[in-house]
Amino acid sequence: MSTRRPLIAGNWKMHKTVAEAESFIQQLLPLVYAAEAVDLAICPPFTALAAMVDSARGSRVQVFAQNMHQAQAGAFTGEISAPMLTEIDVDGVILGHSERRELCGESDRGIALKLAAALDAGLEPILCVGESEAERERGETERKLRHQVQEGLAKVETERLGEVAIAYEPIWAIGTGTVAEPEQAQEAAVFIRALVASRSPEQAGRVRILYGGSVTPENAASLLALADIDGALVGGASLDARAFAAIVAAAAPA
Predict the structure, then answer these.
(1) Contact, 115 vs 152, CB < 8 A?
(2) Is 169 designated active site?
(3) How far apart are CA 187 and CA 180, in angstroms?
(4) 69, 97, 106, 131: which one is catalytic?
(5) For the chain, domain boundaries
(6) Residues 6+ apart with CB under 8 A from 114
């Protein structure tokens, strides 16, 4: 049986003002108070990070950012650095989400630099990887995952690989209502873990692999029961406190 603690993270994307975020956290906290065996995080927009850190302080809810720049400071208009996040006690950061890759032109090389900078700053990174529908249809899922995982982790010291959570998010399932079949998610997770094991079998056993892509309270249990799925990166369902809490509850070990 795995000793990896499940991690459920809610990626709000570009949703919720500070007032809306405050209302959400007040609803969520009593719903997840007893979820002691599950790590959970919310990932608000930059504008709500400080407010959520303050409101969640002393609770079981961690606060992650949705992105960061690899540099400590500089002439990078519109960017946020790791020191800016750690100054306000942010716990972690999502890196390499497919929407950032596709809409903002983020490269594997740049994501690798961000990942190393996040670890150096004491932030817990979630590295997102996943194939498009066309790539899956062409039988290129493993090729795509191999490239993203190996490139993304290239600058991470071997002994620190276990500190990185890796979210398998098939692009064809994100926001579409289409969820990967359990066997598809498990197959991808096993492959990702094997890629980490090629550098360190010990660290591969520590790495938490999350599933993301139209996760809901209705399908969460079947996905989270898989041997190599250690949690979820939740999109739309994380915007509703009760739905998110139900997914957290589904992650609790039996």
Answers:
(1) yes
(2) yes
(3) 11
(4) 97
(5) 7-251
(6) 68, 69, 70, 93, 95, 96, 125
Pull the structure tokens for residue 203.
């660290």
From 99, 124, 135, 169, the catalytic residue = 169
CATH number for 7-251 (one of 1.10.3720.10, 3.40.50.720, 3.20.20.70, 3.30.420.40): it is 3.20.20.70
pTM of the model: 0.96
Let me know if 69 is a catalytic residue.
no
Q: pLDDT in tens for each of the 254 residues of the chain?
A: 468 999 999 999 999 999 999 999 999 999 999 999 999 999 999 999 999 999 999 999 999 999 999 999 999 999 999 999 999 999 999 999 999 999 999 999 999 999 999 999 999 999 999 998 889 889 999 999 999 999 999 999 999 999 999 999 998 777 777 777 889 999 999 999 999 999 999 999 999 999 998 899 999 999 999 999 999 999 999 999 999 999 999 999 86
